[in-house]
Amino acid sequence: MASSFTRILSGRNTAMVLASVGAGTLASGYLLSDSVKEGVAAAERKKLYPPSADYPDLRKHNNCMASALTPAIYAHLRDKATPNDWTLDQCIQTGVDNPGHPFIKTVGMVAGDEESYEVFAEIFDPVIKDRHNGYDPKTMKHPTDLDSSKITSGMFDENYVLSSRVRTGRSIRGLSLPPACSRSERREVERVVVQALSGLKEDLTGRYYSLGEMTEEEQQRLIDDHFLFDKPVSPLLTCAGMARDWPDGRGIWHNNEKTFLIWINEEDHTRVISMEKGGNMKRVFERFCRGLLEVERLIKERGWEFMWNEHLGYILTCPSNLGTGLRAGVHVRLPNLSKDPRFPKILNNLRLQKRGTGGVDTAAVGDIFDISNNDRLGKSEVELVQLVIDGVNYLIDCEKKLEIGQDIKIPAPIPQFKK
Amino acid sequence: MAKLKIKKLCAEKEYPDLSQHSNHMAKVLTKDMYKTLREHSTPNGFAIDGFMQAGVYNLGHPFIMTVGCVAGDEETYEVFKELLDPVIEDRHGGYKPTDKHKTDLNPEHLKGGDDLDPNYVLSSRVRTGRSIRGFCLPPHCSRGERRGIEKLSIEALSALDGDLKGKYYALKNMTEQEQQQLIDDHFLFDKPVSPLLLASGMARDWPDARGIWHNDNKTFLVWINEEDHLRVISMQKGGNMREVFTRFCTGLTKIESLFKQKGHEFMWNEHLGYVLTCPSNLGTGLRGGVHVKLPNVSKHDKFGEILKRLRLQKRGTGGVDTAAVGGVFDISNADRLGFSEVELVQMVVDGVKLLVEMEKRLEKGQSIDDLMPAQK
Q1: Biggest CA pair distance of chain B
Q2: Nearest CA among A302, A333, A313 for reference residue A375
Q3: Could A90 and B15 be called an inter-chain contact, meaning their C-beta atoms sit closer than 8 Å?
Q4: Which residues of A45-118 form beta strands (DSSP E)?
Q5: Is residue A1 within 8 Å of A26, Cβ to Cβ?
Q6: Fewest beta carbons within 10 Å, which of A28, A237, A412, B337?
Q7: How far apart are alpha carbons B19 and B23 in whole angstroms?
Q8: Which helix (H) or strand (E) holds B158?
Q9: CA dist A133 → A77, A128, A349 (Å)
Q10: Which residue has the higher pLDDT, A33 or B301?
Q11: What is the 8-class DSSP label of residue B333?
């Protein structure tokens, strides 16, 4: 039997009729079309393998999917598929293959298309709730706000903040997501986005570098600029099928000033990054919003749009990136504060997280930390960036106090989203 | 991926970019062939994208031609015949679509093989694979099927007795001690890391329903649900390949009859022999080999040519894609299909005997020119 039961839309009804009449043997299927044979085989398999036979063994697992996927939910969803024939088994494969770590709870499932979040809502909703601090997609609405003029105090002390960066992702509505897309869909994403980006002007004027076609020199330069992304090695990504056909349809676009960068067809259709050295987060965010809105306008001109809805905000491959998909952060020197035992609590209350300067799952080097927002869903882009600005300013203040031997205070915890 | 449904998008736009690739599938798959083949899937829903992803994702190497496609079920070999026939012909020394494969698991037919010099031949081993008819293969099977295969296999193996009596160790349940013991015995297989295997989807749900069975004497070993449903291995220290092969045949035949008692048979047909996941293992699926000390012969500039004529291949003692250590090589048959099991093991026995003789000559500083074999 197949790893998941798919419905063959054309042959389904015929197949079910045949199966019920007992035409079980495939020997008699010689005259039947492929899809009918498939339908007959699938019906037989369903009898032979009820959902309980396929329910994954998640006893050693620590991820959001494993916490939420009961045998009842699995039984209910196993035989469903999205209009693109994407199934539950495919959504959860990455979480089954990667048990996770007792200290780090990963999500454990991905979407193959926009409809995944609907068809498999019974499992996605509790996973989203778990990952996003109790956010309930059924009842709550997510605010989108890309008006950068609302930002205050967005200039950091550059004795401490070395660089500032904001990233998000965007998906093109109507095309399947990286775990599920076919080669032509992936190439279509590339075509649509590259075409739109070629319409950017002034400080956003830039160029596209296809991963498969770039020269050695271009590749080296992109590595030196810290722009190049490579074939994923993380099993979290490879088990989800996102690396198929690498490097077909993948590439990097950046503006001539190297402050606005787009990854195409890595973990999402697009990842959009605005960055610069120094502490001018306001300018980074301003460029971010302007660039995003301009790209959106350009794709709309050609009849495309981004995946978005009022409950989940921007739709991306990993449920952890729903809502804003936004991670705003700085590389900041905190030699004293980072050694203070109150550091984790301070970060937690400010709803910030620390990473090493190599990004997720790396260690800090020389007291320089990557500090960014924890949350993605339930707060708008403006709210999250302001939260980072206020939070980092607080951290710098603590650092300065500790430098001169003054004591610091743990701030009150910032409330979750308004209900 | 296992169950990627073909979307009804333009075949032109779906055709993979194989310009940098060096594997059998990429050599053969033209645009027109892709167009036809993507219209079909097996009754289990296995279609061309899952079939060829291993060869699209992995460019391969100009010197080492990998196959680049895998079977998701027995029917794959029918549905994708148009592509597999030339791949099989290329990979298996000119084997034609009309050729018939002989199976011979009668150890009495082997001549000699019990007297390879143990001063040189450190160990002897024969392995093959078997697939259970009616179940999908590792790239495509569901968890339920994989567990079904495990259950059936355990039942069959638990009925073995005499010197074949043994025990099953499920990968997900074994204790630390059991695991260490299996590692020390060189029995334990681990989650595949090779991108060739991973890209085909064989490692899904690891370690669910995977395990190792071996007899108490530690000379007969079965891997369950790694790259194939079953991998069957007979091995022992020293050079008595005859004994290894006899146990191999006896064990396999017994296992087959135990499966038959339960109403299951192995995937086999008279053209392709035993049907396995990778087209490179069709026919006998047999690799018979030794670990042998050849520090002098291996440095001879005709070493490669000698092996080629003997229809043998060399590997490092860590198995495929490892280097030889201390002049010790893994020498085994290069072929799988078009020769019977007896014929292949005979080639190994005769070939290794000759290589050891050559080694002894070179040790004494004598020439080996008169020993050069003809092409088999």
Answers
A1: 69
A2: A313
A3: no
A4: none
A5: no
A6: A412
A7: 11
A8: helix B143-158
A9: 25, 8, 14
A10: B301
A11: E
Integer Cα distance of B56 and A186 in angstroms? 15
| Alpha-carbon gap: A300 to the closest alpha carbon of chain B (Å) | 23
Q: Is A2 close to B14, i.e. CB distance below 8 A? A: no
Amino acid type, B267:
M
Per-residue pLDDT of chain B (376 residues; tens, 9 = 90+): 334 445 667 888 999 999 999 999 999 999 999 999 999 999 999 999 999 999 999 988 878 889 999 999 999 999 999 999 999 999 999 999 999 999 999 999 999 999 999 999 999 999 999 999 999 999 999 999 999 999 999 999 999 999 999 999 999 999 989 998 998 888 888 888 888 899 999 999 999 999 999 999 999 999 999 999 999 999 999 999 999 999 999 999 999 999 999 999 999 999 999 999 999 999 999 999 999 999 999 999 999 999 999 999 999 876 666 777 788 999 999 999 999 999 999 999 999 999 999 999 999 999 999 999 999 9
Q: Least CB-CB distance to A34: which of B41, B141, B143?
A: B41
Tell me phi and psi for residue B249, to 5 degrees. Answer: -65, -45
Structural tokens at position B277: 């996941």
Kind and range of the H or E run holding A48 = helix A34-48
**Which of B292, B307, B274 is CA-nearest to residue B375?**
B307
**Burial readout B356-374 (b: 16 or more C-beta within 10 A, e: otherwise):** bebbbbbeeeeebeeeebe
Match 């050079």 to its residue by tokens. Answer: B239
Distance of CA A177 to the CA centre of its chain: 10
3-state secondary structure of B123: strand
Contact between B347 and B311 (Cβ < 8 Å)? yes
Chains A & B: contacts with CB separation below 8 Å: 122
Nearest CA in chain A to B12: A184
Q: Alpha-carbon distance A201 to A167, whole Å? A: 20
